[in-house]
C-alpha cells in the first residue's frame, strides 16, 4: 500500500515538473528564436512580459510557432487596431522589404515599458528606432531645433517622431494638418497663423 502511494507521488511530481518545463522553455528554442533557452529566460526576466509563459505567445506542443508576432494583438487590441490603420500595415503583403512589425520596434523577449529610458520606444530612443528605416528623416530631425534640444537631454517637452506621426498608426502628416499638428505644442503660433493670410495661401497654394 505504501509502495503504491510512493509510486503515485513520484508520478504526480514528475508530471508537474514536465508541465512546468513545457510552460517555461519551448522545445527547439535556439539562436533563431532570440537566443538559447537560458538567454531567452534571462531576457524575459527584465521584460514587461516576465510573468507570461512561452506558450502564451508561441502556443504549445511540437507545432509551437517560431514567430509570435501575430500573438501581440491578442492582448494589445488597441495598438493592433491603430497599426492596421497606419502606413506600416499598408505595406504588408507587398514586395516592400523589411516591413516593420511589433518586434521591429519593441524587440522580441526583452520588451521594456515605454517610460523605461532603455526601451527603444522611449522618448529619447524613438528617433533612433525609427531611423533604422527612415535614415533621411532621422538626419533632418537631428539637425532641427527639436533634435538638437533632445540631444541635450531635455526630453520632457521635446517632440519625437510619435508626437507628430503617432506611435502605432505612424501616419504621415498631411498638408492641411501641419498647422494643427504643430499647434498642439505651439498654440500661440497656431492662433497667429490662423488669423493671417498665410493660412489661406498654405491650404490653397496658387
Global shape: elongated
Sheet having the most strands:
none
Q: Report the structural category.
A: mainly alpha
Specify the number of helices. Answer: 13
Query: What string gives the helices and strands in order?
Result: HHHHHHHHHHHHH
> Uncertain runs with pLDDT below 50, 5 residues or more?
14-33
- The percentage helix is 40-55%
Write down the Rg: 24 Å
Strand content: under 5%
Question: How many beta-strand runs?
Answer: 0
Averaging pLDDT over every residue, what do you get?
75
Amino-to-carboxy terminus distance: 97 Å
Helices and strands in order, then pairings?
Layout: H1 2-24, H2 37-45, H3 54-58, H4 77-84, H5 87-90, H6 102-106, H7 126-131, H8 135-143, H9 145-151, H10 161-165, H11 178-183, H12 187-195, H13 197-203
Helix pairs in contact: 8-9
Please explain how this structure is put together.
With 206 residues, the protein is mostly helical. It is 50% helix and 0% strand. It contains 13 helices and no strands. The termini are far apart.
Concise summary:
The chain is mainly alpha-helical and 206 residues long. The chain contains 13 helices and no strands. The protein has helices spanning 2-24, 37-45, 54-58, 77-84, 87-90, 102-106, 126-131, 135-143, 145-151, 161-165, 178-183, 187-195, 197-203.
Keywords, separated by commas or semicolons:
mainly alpha; 206 residues; 13 helices
Amino acid at each position: 500500500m505504501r509502495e503504491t502511494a510512493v509510486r503515485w507521488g513520484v508520478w504526480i511530481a514528475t508530471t508537474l515538473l514536465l508541465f512546468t518545463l513545457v510552460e517555461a522553455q519551448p522545445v527547439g528554442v535556439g539562436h533563431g528564436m532570440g537566443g538559447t533557452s537560458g538567454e531567452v529566460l534571462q531576457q524575459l526576466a527584465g521584460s514587461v512580459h516576465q510573468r507570461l509563459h512561452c506558450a502564451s505567445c508561441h502556443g504549445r506542443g511540437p507545432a509551437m510557432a517560431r514567430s509570435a508576432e501575430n500573438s501581440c494583438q491578442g492582448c494589445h487590441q488597441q495598438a493592433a487596431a491603430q497599426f492596421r490603420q497606419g502606413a506600416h500595415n499598408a505595406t504588408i503583403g507587398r514586395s516592400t522589404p523589411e516591413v516593420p512589425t511589433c518586434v521591429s520596434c519593441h524587440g522580441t523577449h526583452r520588451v521594456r515599458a515605454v517610460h523605461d529610458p532603455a526601451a527603444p520606444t522611449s522618448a529619447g530612443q524613438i528617433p533612433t528606432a525609427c531611423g533604422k528605416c527612415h535614415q533621411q528623416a532621422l538626419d533632418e530631425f537631428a539637425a532641427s531645433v527639436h533634435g538638437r534640444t533632445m540631444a541635450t537631454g531635455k526630453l520632457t517637452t521635446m517632440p519625437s517622431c510619435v508626437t507628430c506621426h503617432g506611435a502605432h498608426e505612424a501616419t504621415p502628416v498631411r498638408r492641411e494638418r501641419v498647422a494643427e499638428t504643430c499647434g498642439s505644442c505651439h498654440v500661440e503660433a497656431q492662433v497667429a497663423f490662423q488669423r493671417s493670410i498665410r493660412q489661406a495661401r498654405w491650404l490653397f497654394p496658387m
